[in-house]
Amino acid sequence: MAGHSQFKNIMHRKGKQDAVRSKLFSKLAREITVAAKMGMPDINMNPRLRMAVLAARAENMPKDNIQRAINKAAGGEGENYDEVRYEGYGPGGAAVIVEALTDNRNRTASAVRSYFTKAGGALGESNSVSFMFNRVGEVSYPPEAGDADKVMEAAIEAGADDVISDENGHTILCAFDALNEVSKALEAALGAPTSAKPVWRPTTTAPLDEDKAASMMKLMEALDNDDDVQNVFANFEIADDIMAKLSA
């Protein structure tokens, strides 16, 4: 997601890594517990749990934390969370999709609505912006996984649809319902990926000027800081010179 990737780059540059990592681990643990509750607590038999554990490992989440989250589900512990998706328009008319895991729908909906309102955007109805995105599987590898030709060959063999390679690494795209099979085949050929997850990939982008970009960053940061929000996808695009100012 062009917009979300840009936002993440800014957040990483800003520091506060301990607090950011602690919040990230909490969100990863929640997804692991929910995935384990919905299926078997075995990553070989539960595709969603496998993806959640892969995501946790990619962020260097300690093995004990991962196992504790799985055990919590196996023991019937922990809250019951609902999966909720919110859609709306941010500053400059950029489309935003928010995925949450919540034990209180009213609390989460009220909070998400307030974030959009404060940023000059508006929360919409279900499916109000998702038509501008494709739901696909995304598998990421670092540059060390191999050159573009090697990764492309592995992706074709695995049944993927597209590969985007640059100096930051390789992004392999596949059909949403083929993600588990494709990621397993890629892992056999290239090793463990840095991430393997379903994403909303925009089909069009919305360029933002400096003022709108600053407001969008505040919206993204507020959503990212909310404990119930798991993932945010957006179609905004910010010019490099504006990005440099925002991340200074």
Map the helices and strands.
Layout: H1 2-14, H2 17-38, H3 47-58, H4 63-74, E1 82-89, E2 95-102, H5 105-118, E3 122-123, E4 133-141, H6 148-158, E5 162-166, E6 169-175, H7 179-190, E7 195-202, E8 206-208, H8 210-225, E9 229-234, E10 236-238, H9 240-247
Parallel strand pairs: 8-10
Antiparallel strand pairs: 1-2, 1-3, 2-9, 4-6, 4-7, 5-6
Helix pairs in contact: 2-3, 2-4, 6-7
Domain TACO1/YebC-like N-terminal: 5-75
Organism: Bosea thiooxidans
GO molecular function: DNA binding
Task: Give me some keywords for this one.
single chain, alpha+beta, Arc Repressor Mutant, subunit A, 4-stranded antiparallel β-sheet, 9 helices
What does this structure look like?
The structure is a single chain. This protein is of the alpha+beta class and 248 residues long. Among the domains are: 3-75, Orthogonal Bundle (Arc Repressor Mutant, subunit A), CATH 1.10.10.200; 143-193, no CATH class. It is built from nine helices and ten strands. β1 and β2 (95-102) form a beta hairpin. The longest helix has 22 residues, at 17-38. It is globular. The model has no long low-confidence stretch (mean pLDDT 89). It comes from Bosea thiooxidans. This is Probable transcriptional regulatory protein ARD30_04000. One of its GO terms (biological process) is regulation of DNA-templated transcription. One of its GO terms (molecular function) is DNA binding. Belongs to the TACO1 family.
